[in-house]
């Protein structure tokens, strides 16, 4: 359903710092994530006399940005495990199913949000070493809230789809039953919004705007799922309908959460819109690649069954593009895929078409639009800001090259 749902955490977004280690102060990889972030901000704040071009080059070469936030992401994972404790032991077990060590996934959504916060915020420019930056803490809480909503969507998705696997293991509904799975999802959603009400408040009252953005994302998720369930034969053949549904199901949460980061930062409406556009196009690009992998990947690499969409009667971009080349495929698509022979026929048309290639090109277009949104952010010479922006741009490039 969501971007973070499948998007793998990308390590090594920038070059290793080892090539320049001799010229740097103590290596930030040897300190905690928070201290590393503070070190980075101090270091680059002291070099602001350099030109923007020089700053951009340093951002590409000096530090792996994930080394600066990995401890924050780890802290988020630990906090999430402690947050999903319920009064009923069975509910605690169910709610914590995807937060267990080894089952938590790649935590991509928190990673993207923290990098976005670093990309648009100047609050860490003059940090007090050893203290906790208040707004950075609110960014982390927002990342936790978004992850709670994300996992809720996974659980409810699996119930609706009767899925047996998730992330390469048995789905929660398969292990504990549909009723408990639904209740676990509801419990996580309540935790998300209660945390938002308490943890995101500030003197400017930004928490109300953030909660409204998160509520919009949840509404979009429900709308997208309904669009998929109640699709008509004509809508099944529409690329516009497919892309709108994909936005709701896959990109709405990350786009609205990126915008919420900008709201928390007190940024302008223009910056908030650019943050939103980044999340939107990143999410759509991710879904398009996911559509390709559903046809070309294996169950082992995907952590779920391959060809799962078409066997559920879901028509995605590769088939829609193939239908443009072979209009006779439209009759099969309108009939649906309850008949196995229709599945075989659709796959045969897809194999002869450029459906996969055209889907990959469309994904690249959306990835470029996401990167363009980062390039359009207000100019900065702060190295830590440039590092995070480069990381977000590199993520769009690596996204369209992923194989699982």
UniProtKB/TrEMBL annotation:
Molecular function as annotated in GO: metal ion binding; prenyltransferase activity
Q: Which Pfam families match?
A: polyprenyl_synt
Does the entry feature the keyword Protein transport, yes or no? no
Q: Does the keyword Transferase apply?
A: yes
What InterPro entries has UniProt attached to this entry? Isoprenoid_synthase_dom_sf (IPR008949), Polyprenyl_synt (IPR000092), Polyprenyl_synt_CS (IPR033749)
> Which first-to-last residue range defines the signal peptide?
1-23
The GO biological-process annotations, alphabetized, read as:
isoprenoid biosynthetic process; ubiquinone biosynthetic process
Gene Ontology cellular-component terms for this entry are:
transferase complex
Q: Which UniProt keywords apply?
A: Magnesium, Metal-binding, Signal, Transferase
> Which cofactor is recorded for it?
Mg(2+)
Q: What is the similarity comment for this entry?
A: Belongs to the FPP/GGPP synthase family.
Q: What is this protein called?
A: Uncharacterized protein
Q: Which organism is it from?
A: Oryza barthii
Taxonomic classification = Eukaryota, Viridiplantae, Streptophyta, Embryophyta, Tracheophyta
């Amino acid at each position: 359903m969501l971007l973070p749902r499948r998007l793998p955490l990308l390590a090594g977004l920038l070059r290793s710092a080892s090539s320049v280690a001799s010229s740097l102060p103590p290596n930030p990889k040897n300190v905690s994530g928070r201290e590393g972030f503070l070190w980075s901000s101090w270091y680059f704040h002291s070099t602001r006399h350099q030109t923007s071009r020089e700053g951009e080059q340093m951002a590409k070469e000096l530090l792996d940005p994930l080394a600066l936030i990995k401890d924050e992401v780890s802290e988020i994972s630990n906090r999430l495990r402690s947050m999903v404790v319920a009064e009923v032991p069975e509910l605690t077990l169910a709610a914590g199913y995807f937060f267990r060590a080894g089952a938590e996934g790649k935590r991509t959504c928190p990673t993207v949000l923290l990098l976005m916060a670093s990309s648009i915020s100047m609050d860490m420019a003059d940090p007090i070493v050893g203290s906790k930056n208040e707004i950075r803490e609110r960014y982390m809480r927002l990342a936790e809230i978004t992850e709670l909503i994300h996992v809720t969507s996974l659980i409810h998705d699996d119930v609706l789809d009767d899925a047996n696997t998730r992330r390469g293991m048995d789905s929660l509904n398969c292990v504990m039953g549909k009723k408990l799975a639904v209740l676990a999802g509801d419990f996580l959603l309540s935790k998300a919004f209660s945390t938002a009400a308490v943890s995101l408040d500030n003197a400017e009252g930004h928490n109300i705007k953030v909660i409204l953005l998160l509520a919009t994302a949840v509404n979009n998720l429900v709308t997208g799922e309904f669009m998929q369930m109640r699709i008509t034969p004509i809508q099944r053949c529409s690329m516009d309908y497919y892309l709108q549904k994909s936005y709701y199901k896959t990109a709405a949460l990350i786009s609205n959460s990126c915008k919420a980061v900008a709201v928390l930062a007190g940024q302008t409406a223009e910056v908030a819109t650019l943050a939103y556009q980044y999340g939107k196009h990143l999410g759509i690009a991710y879904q398009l690649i996911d559509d390709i992998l559903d046809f070309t990947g294996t169950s082992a690499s995907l952590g779920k069954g391959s060809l799962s969409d078409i066997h559920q009667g879901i028509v995605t971009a590769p088939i829609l593009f193939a239908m443009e080349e072979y209009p006779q495929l439209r009759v099969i698509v309108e009939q649906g895929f309850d008949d196995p022979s229709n599945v075989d026929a659709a796959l045969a048309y897809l194999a002869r078409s450029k459906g996969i290639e055209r889907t990959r090109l469309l994904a690249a277009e959306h990835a470029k639009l996401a990167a363009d949104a980062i390039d359009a952010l207000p100019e900065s010479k702060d190295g830590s800001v440039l590092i995070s922006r480069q990381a977000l741009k590199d993520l769009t490039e690596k996204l369209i090259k992923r194989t699982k």
